[in-house]
Amino acid sequence: MGLISEEDKKELKKLLEEKMDKEVEILFFKGNTPECHFCEQIENLLEEVSSLSSKITYKTYDYQSDIAKNYEVKTAPVILFKQKPNIRFLGIPSGHEFSAFLEDIIRISRNEVDLKLATAQKISRIKKPVHIMVFVTPTCPYCPIAVRTAHMFALINPNIRSEMIEALEYRELAEKWNVMAVPKVVINEKVEFEGAYPEEIFAEKVLEAL
Amino acid sequence: MFQISIGAINRLEEKEFDVVIVGGGPAGCTAALYSRRFNLSTLVISERFGGLITDAEIVENYPGIPNISGGQLGELFVNHAKKYGARFYQARVEKIYRKDTKFFSKLSDGTEVSSKTIILATGERHRKLNVPGEREFLGKGVSYCAVCDAPLFKGKKVAIVGGGNVAFSDAQVLAKHASEVYLVHRRNWFRADPIEVERVKKTSNIKLITPYVVKEIRGKKSVEKIILEKTKEENGKVIPTGETKELDVDGVFIAIGLIPNSELARQIGAKINERGYIVVDDFMRTTVDGVFAAGDCTDKASRFRQVVVSAAQGAIAAISVFNYLKSSK
User: Fold this and answer.
1) Whole-structure pTM over 0.80, yes or no?
2) Choosing from B148, B248, B281, B289, which is the catalytic residue?
3) Is ipTM strictly over 0.85?
4) Once rounded to an integer, what is the mean pLDDT over residues A125-151?
5) Active-site position among B149, B170, B296, B299
6) Inter-chain CB proximity A94 and B2 less than 8 Å
7) What CATH number matches the domain at A6-208, 1.10.510.10, 1.20.1250.20, 3.40.30.80, 3.40.50.2300?
8) Which one of A157, B42, B86, B157 has the fewest beta carbons within 10 angstroms of its own beta carbon?
9) CB B149 to CB A137 under 8 A?
């Protein structure tokens, strides 16, 4: 059996067929095994996800390759989207995060977000570079809410780079930022908070970090 | 270890429904499933689909399903209701008010929907210890979600506070990651099922520390220790003895019970009991015409706190809604 059950695959195919518009290309930057515990699983997952729709493709690169440098990828594993390279997953989008990953694919394909007008206006006006890190664990049911919001911000503003960071795969980074509860959000290495806040408050925190 | 969950895409085309269900846990999802089978147009509004049960690592007492994670069970509930065409929308309901014969629900994102009836399946939220340091160290070692945060305490010492099933199952989750787990409880006996207590007693890195209450959580940047006070029980009451001790821990997980989410019910004028739960009759009717309630937010289910009880109440509420709409035509 694959990572996604046959029954889910059927459902997902229908969903993607119905919701997707443009093609989405996923780029996966992998590291060496055994240091990269989940790289093989991530590749299997991407293989399965790309089999769900002809509009989803993926390519695998080494995290030290030239193309990795072009995308400013310095670590592994990193997943990003060619159309929106500022939307990233550092670590496996498994467990509860899988839904955030799928929603990203659909949103990028449709170039569409679910944000309130006021929030979208605030975020789209930002001219300075913003780096949002959202630390998660795959077993955290609240985490995708924070990832979803951070990624939607990146979708409407190319100045914002939003990363989901799986705290167990990126243990050193998690320790550096003293991650003791998830979701934990760090913006521009300046503003940090824990919890899945509504988009209005999240947007305020982004502005605070400018 | 590897599991997949499929979320909802938030979009709402219709704005008028036969029934709006507030809450997407076992009660809300079951009510939605039954409502749809009665062909009622049904909207479930929830901040989090699946409800608090999705925080449980393992559920072993839902009939027919011997062993499943809380997250997966929640997802099965949601998908079952969706299969029959229930709409799910992720938002918080800020306000419900009545105008003529209709109810209007105002949502956190500004959307407003109307319905002929309401089912409140709003569940409960975590009770706090209310001790110094609890708020200060929230996210810095203090946590209410063991399945979320336990992996971040690998090789560390943690305390879990509480004596019910949640505390005991959290202790098991924590024991997989932490080096040492202290289960702190204010009595010498536990509300948790004996089978859970036995399991914890057999786990070598869990120590029971009873009868103690947490007086204070201390640390610099993050939690470093907790101050405990010994208690004694007299005529069923827990009395502090004044005898204190310190326990070095890197994390404190709190599972001391839940309090009802009954603010919306209060707002529309439904009767609330002295413990804060929504009063319902045998048909899940609240004291307000057209407003029903089901699950752990009600005075009936809260004494049991079981998925199966909440689901059953959800079914009853939906059947009552159907009969109510039929008779009011």
Assistant:
1) no
2) B148
3) no
4) 93
5) B149
6) yes
7) 3.40.30.80
8) B157
9) yes
